[in-house]
Amino acid sequence: MSGTHDEAVTRVVRKVFGSAASLAVVGPLPSAAVEATFTRLNEIEERFSTYRPNSEICRIRDGLLARADAHAETQEILEICDALYEESGGIFDAWHAGRDGGLEPAGYVKGWAIGVAGAILRDHGVDNFSLGIGGDITAAGGGPAGIGWSVGVVDPRRNTILVARVALRNAAIATSGMSERPGHLRDASSGEAAVGPWLSFTVVGPDIARVDALATICFLEGRAGMRRVDAEPGYGALAMDTEGVLTATEGFRTRSI
User: Fold this and answer.
1) Buried b (16+ CB within 10 A) or exposed e, 107-119
2) Quick one: average pLDDT of 87-98?
């Protein structure tokens, strides 16, 4: 529903994945929807965390759990990470992405988890919302003004300044870069912090899991990453290089406001 005035937004913020998960909803927000959403996110964190020693990912990484004996969901995610490794020519390597050179599937898991949570909200009749964790956001419906959810892209050099703003309607956005967690993106071939032409790489598109994976791959891929996103229908990218120069694809510009 759209109108001349913004509609009221209800916000819920909770801690998950070592970050803040922020849910904003226009219209009724059933408590059952909130609890089901965050219960599921906590379950995912327990299974996929690389900081909890008893998570399945940590146990697989440490040789205490065979991949074939893991939960079916864990096996599915690792298979997707393997497919991303093949697609990216080894750039996306969840098995060697951790700070210790070990298993770290967060480059896919966080976006996927946000998508799972968004599906739960829809199942509970919530159809005008945005849900973000650590800067990765999925949005449904027209937002409070009916024109989409307005999301800003932060300058990686000065996080109080925006370099762009997009309107998301049934779409998602994710950014990879070094500003928030320096050194968290690794060059799988060397194990060192990734070095390339970008300070940040932002992707927009219809699917949050794909958006998140592309942001990681394309940040690591360098200039070719821009061409990769440009060739994918429905997706767009905005990147800032080490000189502070912004480059955007047409798919990103069409969402800019």
Assistant:
1) bbbbbbbbbbbbe
2) 94
